[in-house]
Amino acid sequence: MAKAKTIFICQSCGYQAPKWLGRCPDCQGWGTLVEELVGEEATPEGTRQRWGVEEAPRAIGDVAEEEEGPRLPTRLEEFNRVLGGGIVAGSVVLLGGDPGIGKSTLMFQCLYTLAAQGKRCLYISAEESLRQTKLRAKRLGAVSDGLFVAAETSLERIIQGVEELSPQVLVIDSIQSIYTSQLGSAPGSISQVRETSGRLTYLAKGLGVATFLVGHVTKDGAIAGPRVLEHIVDTVLYMERSADSPFRILRAVKNRFGSTNEIGVFEMKEEGLQEVTNPSEIFLAERPTGTSGSTVMASMEGTRPILVEIQALVAPTAFAVPKRMAMGVDYNRLSLLVAVMEKKVGINLSHQDIFANVAGGLRIEEPAVDLGVVVAVASSHLDKVIPAGMVVFGEVGLAGEVRGVSFGEQRVREAARLGFKSCILPRSSAQGIKPPKGMELITVRDLREVWDKLF
């Protein structure tokens, strides 16, 4: 039997080195290598878990088909939307977010709604005592006979409790605090996170228990042990917020049972998280009227259209190099669009500071935001007010053309539902769209047509 040996493992990326290094050669992190025990003595024989069953390989056409079992819907429709319609039995979901953002609150509210439907739920608190957990439940009004709680950090005792209780939904809060005595490393290390999450995943698949793993976020904004956890679980959810904002955005970045890039919007209140069923009205609630540099853009988050306000401020610079700042949109994209405006439209912005912002703290990644940014910047520079009842969307190319984007009809219908009267959109996206009653579609091919119609 091989003897146990010690190696040094980076706690950020998992890089292994035979001796201690001050800086990780892989992720370039300082002071991240920690000594851990590996080998047969570190992982005794019989503790390794087997994945799958002993079956000979067969043709895929001979594999028996199984219908997807019914999902467990919670009473939080925003949460159901992000998961793809509800909780899948036997699935493993990783939930990450900044400290204090509301991860535990969201999990407690979801378990309470499931327990109220007669489902047996188990909440494992690895960082709080049972008394603290009870106080949280009373504050949220989430006390139910079907919701069981335990304060435990030992993986072996957690597995024993799950096998005895046989819950339908299990929450581990948080995975970095769980340890197994079969490893000599400290809780939260790469080895512990890999082993505990792997065995919990094996348990979830074997017993059909829907499992949620709550993960901490590092200074870089990634879940601690990110690549280890994200490859193991079925779904990865991130909870985000902007500074001093009561709104929380739950985003799916990986989902084996639904669409990715779906978002759910919640508002943090004293009694817990409340759903925001119409986020467009929230993001446009404080939009200024009669002011230049502001326009409304129709964005798509997953399958949901959301209208957001794009703000821009253009002011003369006092320095040789003008400043560019982007919040909610990509900085490089802003620089590219400014260059296209200067070259194709003839606006001189070389001596102007330009600031762009998406109001409400939402970040827009899709290219359809291009036309909104261009119109907002031009409006501020020319001091021309964009009509309050107008919405825009479209991608802008390097030649100044306005290119089509997907989901054009959904964007137009959402704008009409909120009372907007006109929409500037790419000509190719307008094909086949029947304008809603009271909505005028203004189609454009390039930025010069946009200038002719607006400025």
List keywords for this structure.
single chain; 455 residues; alpha/beta; Rossmann fold; Ribosomal Protein S5, domain 2; 3 domains; nine-stranded mixed sheet; seven-stranded mixed sheet; 11 helices; 21 strands; globular
Produce a short descriptive summary:
The chain has 455 residues and is an alpha/beta fold.
How would you describe the overall organization of this protein?
- It contains eleven helices and 21 strands.
- It has helices at residues 77-83, 103-116, 130-140, 155-165, 190-207, 226-232, 279-283, 331-344, 370-382, 408-417, 447-454; strands at 5-10, 16-17, 33-38, 92-97, 121-125, 147-151, 169-173, 210-215, 235-240, 247-255, 263-269, 272-275, 294-301, 304-316, 324-327, 352-358, 390-392, 395-396, 402-403, 422-426, 440-444.
- It folds into three domains: 5-38, no CATH class; 72-277, P-loop containing nucleotide triphosphate hydrolases (Rossmann fold, 3-Layer(aba) Sandwich), CATH 3.40.50.300; 282-454, Ribosomal Protein S5, domain 2 (2-Layer Sandwich), CATH 3.30.230.
- It starts with a strand and ends with a helix.
- The chain has 455 residues and is α/β, with parallel strands linked by helices.
